[in-house]
Specification:
heterodimer; A: 20 helices; 0% strand; B: mainly alpha; 69% helix; disordered C terminus
Chain lengths: 496, 505
């Protein structure tokens, strides 16, 4: 089969050129966070990494990420020694910016490799679709906004995830798939949300016999268990040895934070808070006290009307909605079901999780992209997610210079890829849900006035007042989209 | 910081806040207006729109040197919008027409079009630095595509528009004149066409100057002088001072005369030197050998005039006798190269003018084949390279590197790939010669970048790297001029040996 143009590598190269041009763009505190980690890992012995707190941005990722920063810091020191000094808070010389931004672009090669593998392992009849999907991920506005402007290493992390997902396709590489995922967990613990799907999938395909679930394959179990122990040992061993474990765990899982993050991530709790605000408004109007309407949103989880939400509630809701798809995965452990289950685990944790960050939407979008082109039903559920997920990232960038970049790039990407997807998605052999199609068309149409309002009209009408309104509309709008696409995909998943 | 940025912003300020008669007189020390009227009108429109959004952006005096980030977005957006209103449609139409004319498939013409729109030099100067060259270049492109469509009167309108936007469009004036004259002369003399074109040209000029003239008369009638800071009798004219011997300074039309003279004076700064900055043309290269400053200005002016004429006469004679559509961009490019290399007061950014018609060749017959692609690529990369000192001064090294490398990567050109020279097999010794020559230049450019970045020039020659840039640039541009001229000769079937060879094949 002849190669398709433009190839993934060509697109990645052109995209990299664009990203380099964005070097001087806005960067969030995450930039300083990562610089600080470079400094910590470079100038302190391992025994103090998780105790150090000169900066408020303490190290709160698992050990592999710390090792990764430690390796980077050796190069960083050569580029600019001042970058790796712990007391040099908020240091951003141009060398630092160039170095850190370049490291994001370079480590994204992991994602390119994983997507290339994804294309090559796709069955012949869907290879064109796989090609388009790979291009859509590598050019994703989500990664552009979060990684290359806002600053993080998601391209690298999701590269590892996609790599692991692709390896799960083939019986012979199941073990490495699981191990790579274990390693990924030691990089960034947010992927714990997807772990149940991995657990069930590996259990039923690797550890249990295909004939009967009551016949475990002992040798496979030992291999898997041993290797995973080895990986976790390599990651956490040194910290167990230096007696940092309790300290590290308190850093990794800070339960003291609130239900909603600074900007509301578009999940169920955003809709819940929105309802609460509307109810307050109604009640206070009657009582004539308007002042409480504009209560700040940041870290504010006190509900006035509706009952409080506890972390326990979140946890059980998340678990419940993760178990549903896992039951199907356990009975029919195909690769497609596995990806579906991973996606639905991502959905459940995003929608019902405690203190979810809007960046976590990639946890849903990227696995979903891999199967979005299976048929029109899948694509129908994917559409509102693609719109809502990316629009919900807009508030991350609020500086005037980045406004045209994020808007134009995202709209261009959405138009281009949704159009191509539309054309490529094969018809489904099951009837479609026309209500859902209507809903998604209407939903996408609403995004246009929403973007116009939040970016232009609001300023003209209200000026600096009610700054929370656009944020609230954006997240409520996106929450409806994410929730709707979740319901849609649940239906598709269980009826496929 | 960005000189050009502040200049453009300032013009929006003076055109929206001052009476029209003062536009060309207001505080010339602070980025006084020095482009023709259409630029002023353009600034006025943009300034009016900007004032609607935020009146402080263009407040008189108080807005000077404003660094408001929102203003920056607005200004950048105006460049993009102006480009999309004029340059992009003109390029699309031209590529379509030129491709169809020369029998090129739509796909190839589109690839050529993308290459034209992504020209690194234009993006670097307009969108990264800050200018509105694409408006002028777009109007010239529109003029050229009207020539292809044989709508000669429209081409005159567009060209006058370009000229009234930036006087630099004069680089093309000779070839447009020669081409139109040729079209009116061969195969048989067509006086009515010639007269029509002349009339339309005159009318367009009149229409474009009219607001300025009418505004000045109205301001005089209102009692608003062109210079609010001066009292008493009008000061002497800056140039053409003998005019006052014939015109009474008290008449009602004297302010108009004064205004026109002032515009000419501002737009054509003959009083300045032969060149301002280091620019890769003949005079600057010559300056290395003999110090030009020691010669009298009149002599230099005459020398520049003669040299320019010598350079531009051959392509214009060819295009006059053989006014072919397919070769027209070559004649434009050769003439513009002639101006760039030899004329008076050339700026580094003027290299965009010869590059534009030369790059248009990509959309034509065999545009993406070895010969044209390698030379167009060479000229563009070299052009961007000669602008590097300018870009470096405002810290634009990274965009320079990214945009040039990206363009050459997408077109499969050096320095990212040498396949353009080898793709089509062995093409004779001329091919080997071209490849060697280009490679030498690319190597020189690369070596220059290394040297400039890591080696400090000797103390008594602190501008060594700039001078080296000028020397290499001049040599390369000279070759580009010769190539355009040679291609023009060849494609006009004026090379006897070549003509017979193709017939026998």
């Amino acid at each position: 089969m002849s190669e398709q143009y433009p190839t993934l590598a060509q697109c990645a190269l052109v995209a990299a050129a664009f990203k380099i041009l964005l070097f001087p763009a806005y960067k969030s505190t995450d930039f300083e966070v990562h610089r600080n980690w470079l400094a910590i890992t470079n100038s302190l012995p391992l025994s103090q990494w998780y105790y150090e707190k000169t900066s408020e941005w303490t190290l709160d990722y698992p050990p592999f990420f710390a090792y990764f920063e430690w390796i980077l810091s050796h190069i960083a020191r050569l580029v600019d020694t001042a970058m790796v000094r712990i007391h040099n808070l908020d240091y951003d010389s141009w060398q630092t910016v160039y170095f850190q931004r370049t490291s994001v672009i370079v480590t994204e090669v992991m994602l390119v490799y994983a997507l290339q593998l994804f294309m090559e392992t796709s069955p012949l009849q869907s290879r064109r679709a796989a090609h388009v999907v790979a291009l859509s991920i590598i050019l994703s506005p989500g990664l552009l906004i979060i990684d290359h402007i806002h600053f993080q290493y998601n391209g690298f992390m999701y590269g590892i995830l996609v790599w692991s997902l692709v390896l799960a396709r083939c019986k012979t590489t199941l073990l490495s798939s699981g191990l790579i995922f274990a390693a990924l967990l030691c990089f960034k613990h947010i992927y714990l949300y997807l772990a149940p799907a991995y657990f069930v999938f590996l259990l039923s395909t690797y550890c249990l016999s295909a004939k009967s679930i009551f016949r475990p394959r002992i040798f496979n179990c030992i291999k898997l268990g041993g290797c995973i122990t080895g990986i976790f040992g390599a990651a956490f061993g040194p910290f167990v040895f230096t007696e940092q474990m309790p300290q590290m765990l308190s850093r990794l899982f800070p339960f003291s934070r609130g239900l909603c993050h600074a900007y509301w991530a578009p999940n169920v709790w955003a809709m819940y808070s929105f309802t609460d605000r509307v109810l307050i408004h109604r009640l206070t109007l009657k009582e004539g006290a308007l002042s409480s309407v504009t209560r700040g949103l940041v870290g504010d989880t006190a509900f006035a009307v509706l009952p409080e939400i506890t972390p326990r509630t979140c946890f059980f809701l998340t678990l419940f909605f993760q178990i549903l798809p896992l039951l199907k995965l356990f009975s029919k452990p195909t690769w497609e079901n596995f990806i579906g289950a991973v996606t639905l685990c991502g959905y459940a944790s995003f929608l019902f999780g405690w203190h979810v960050h809007e960046k976590a939407i990639l946890l849903v979008i990227i696995p979903f992209s891999l199967v979005a082109l299976r048929d029109r039903r899948h694509f129908g559920a994917f559409k509102p997610l693609a719109v809502a997920g990316h629009v919900s990232l807009f508030p991350l960038l609020f500086t005037p210079a980045e406004f045209p970049i994020k808007t134009i790039y995202t709209i261009f990407w959405l138009v281009l890829f949704l159009m191509i997807f539309e054309r490529m998605a094969p018809a489904s052999n099951k009837p479609r849900f026309f209500l859902l199609d209507r809903f998604s068309t209407l939903y996408i149409a609403v995004s246009i006035p929403l973007i116009v309002y939040t970016s232009l009209l609001h300023q003209i009408v209200f000026g600096k007042r009610y700054e929370f309104l656009p944020l609230m509309f954006t997240s409520s709008y996106a929450a409806i989209g994410v929730f709707g696409s979740w319901v849609g995909y649940m239906v598709v998943y269980f009826t496929a | 910081m960005h000189g050009d940025y502040e200049a453009q912003r300032h013009w929006m300020e003076i055109t929206t806040r001052l009476p029209i008669s003062q536009w060309y007189f207001h505080d010339l020390e602070w980025w006084g207006l020095d482009y023709p009227p259409l630029t002023a009108y353009h600034s006025w429109v943009l300034g009016k729109i900007g004032t609607l959004i935020n009146p402080d952006w263009f407040a008189l005096f108080s807005s000077r040197g404003s660094q408001d980030p929102n203003l920056k977005i607005f200004m950048r957006a105006t460049v993009i919008v102006s480009e999309y209103l004029i340059y992009v449609p003109a390029a699309v139409v031209f590529a379509r027409r030129y491709g169809r004319l020369t029998g090129v498939s739509i796909w190839t013409a589109t690839v050529g079009l993308v290459a034209i729109l992504m020209q690194p030099g234009t993006i670097l100067i307009d969108h990264v630095h800050f200018q509105y060259n694409t408006v002028m270049l777009g109007l010239v492109m529109a003029c050229m595509s009207s020539l292809l469509a044989e709508r000669y009167k429209w081409s005159a309108v567009f060209f006058v528009g370009a000229l009234m936007f930036k006087q630099m469009a004069l680089y093309y004036a000779f070839s447009i004149f020669a081409y139109l004259l040729g079209r009116c002369t061969f195969p048989k003399v067509n006086f009515s066409r010639l007269f029509g074109i002349a009339l339309v040209t005159a009318i367009t000029y009149g229409v474009l100057v009219l607001p300025l003239v009418a505004g000045t008369i109205y301001d005089t009638y209102r009692g608003v002088g062109s210079r609010s800071d001066l009292d008493g009798p009008p000061p002497p004219l800056p140039i053409l001072a003998w005019l006052t011997d014939y015109i009474d300074t008290g008449t009602f039309y004297y302010p108009v005369v004064e205004m026109v003279v002032q515009v000419l004076h501002r737009v054509f700064p003959f009083s300045r030197g032969l060149f301002e900055d280091k620019v890769a043309n003949f005079w600057c290269a010559l300056n290395v050998v003999l110090k030009i400053k020691n010669y009298p200005t009149e002599l230099l002016q005459k020398a520049a005039l003669v040299a320019t004429l010598l350079a531009i006469v051959p392509p214009n004679i060819i295009i006059f006798f053989r006014p072919r559509k397919a070769t027209m961009p070559l004649a434009f490019a050769a003439t513009a190269w002639g101006f760039f290399l030899f004329s008076w007061q050339v700026h580094e950014k003027s290299v965009l003018l010869p590059l534009m018609p030369m790059t248009l060749l990509l959309a034509g017959k065999q545009g993406l084949n070895r010969d044209i692609r390698s030379w167009v690529g060479f000229a563009n990369i070299l052009g961007a390279w000669t602008m590097f000192p300018l870009l470096k001064r405002v810290d634009l090294r990274i965009p320079y590197a990214v945009l040039t490398l990206l363009w050459s990567y997408l077109l499969g050109l050096p320095p990212t790939s040498w396949s353009v020279y080898t793709d089509e097999g062995f093409g004779g010794w001329s091919q080997v010669g071209t490849a060697t020559l280009h490679t030498l230049f690319y190597a020189a450019m690369a070596a220059w970048h290394v040297a400039e970045a890591y080696v400090a020039p000797p103390l008594h020659k602190s501008d060594l790297w700039t001078v080296a840039n000028v020397g290499v640039g001049f040599a390369g541009f000279g070759l580009c001029y010769l190539w355009c001229l040679w291609r023009l000769l060849k494609d006009s079937d004026l090379l006897p040996s070549y003509a017979t060879k193709t017939k026998t094949q």
